Amino acid sequence: NLAKNKIKITHYGVREKEYILDNVNYRKIDNILSIEEDYEFIIFTALANDLSYKMKEKFKKTKFVLWTHGNRLNSNEINNIDHLFNNIIFVSDYARKKNIDLFDNENKLITIKNFLVFDDDMINKYYDLDLFNLKDNNIISYIGNVSKGLYNLNYIIPNLRKHIKKFKVQIFSEPHFYLPAKSNTVSEDKILLNISNFDEVIFFKKTGKEEMCNLLEKSNIFISPNTFNESFCLSLIEAMFMELKCVTTNRSAIPETANKYAVYTPTLNPTDDNKQTEINLDQFIENIYIANENYFKHEKEIKEQKQYVFNKYHPKKILKKWLDFFTNY
Question: Does residue 325 contact residue 199 with C-beta atoms inside 8 Å?
Fold first, then answer.
């Protein structure tokens, strides 16, 4: 492991926990200038340009790495980023390619994909479990915050009734978006309240990974009417691993993440750098209907998608890429 190679890592950023480094010698810090010991690497999960020159002066031998979960970096910040960071790591090739033109040395930009954020016991349990034969028809699941298409359910659900007489929608979202809503505007609050009042909808509050997976065992369809400028989409690989057929969009990095295993609804500007774009919701509804009707005809494909996630996004596979990055530096 990295400790044996005497490579010490820390990270500075806004995320509560970075799972990828759980098995190596690292710790999180709140005040980077409080470090007294030398680190070979400092991984940033957020920009700290106000500290960049102070840091460069104090940590002259340290290699600075930016691990970004966004797509296009702010072009106004590139001089600072280029000066501060030895490498920028993106979670998709799509995101990396979006930034190559901003840097003179494209070798500074590296792709290390995101990973299935399940512990070993959960991965082993659900990998061995034949979920396909536990599925019920007409159980639809949405995983993700409001920016990933939740508001679109206000149109999708009532219009889906024209195609499917009886169905259920399970919504797993971030805690601060549970009702009563606390969104940015009154109109958005009303939309969320309206969605929660649909007979078909169940909001699950404060759901951990294990509980969520228990509820996904019988769900056959995952929907992500996502028009967000997505750099990876973790919920997509979670649903694929749990043997749900995924109905989503062709927005940014989503097709790279799901490969051939999702049903894609075109968006107006799939590679646009703006946060949101438009989607044909009637086409999306039609795709839900078709995926639901044909789910049990595609056992082989559903099993293949599960194996695809296991092979490509298993935490140990991604951890090896990080270890290779550090040890071969």
Answer: no
DSSP state of 22: T
DSSP for 86-131 reads SEEEESSHHHHHTTGGG-S-GGGEEE--------HHHHHHHHHS-G
Evaluate whether 265 touches 250 at the Cβ level (below 8 Å).
Answer: yes
What is the three-class DSSP state of 142? strand
Mean of the pLDDT values across residues 191-216?
89
Residues 263/246, Cβ–Cβ less than 8 Å: yes
Q: Distances in Å between the alpha carbon of 27 and those of 10, 31, 36, 88, 236? A: 5, 12, 14, 20, 29
SS3 144: coil
Least confident of 106-120, 169-183, 268-282: 169-183
Phi/psi at 131 (5° precision): -70, -30
pTM, 2 dp? 0.88
For residue 266, the SS3 value is coil
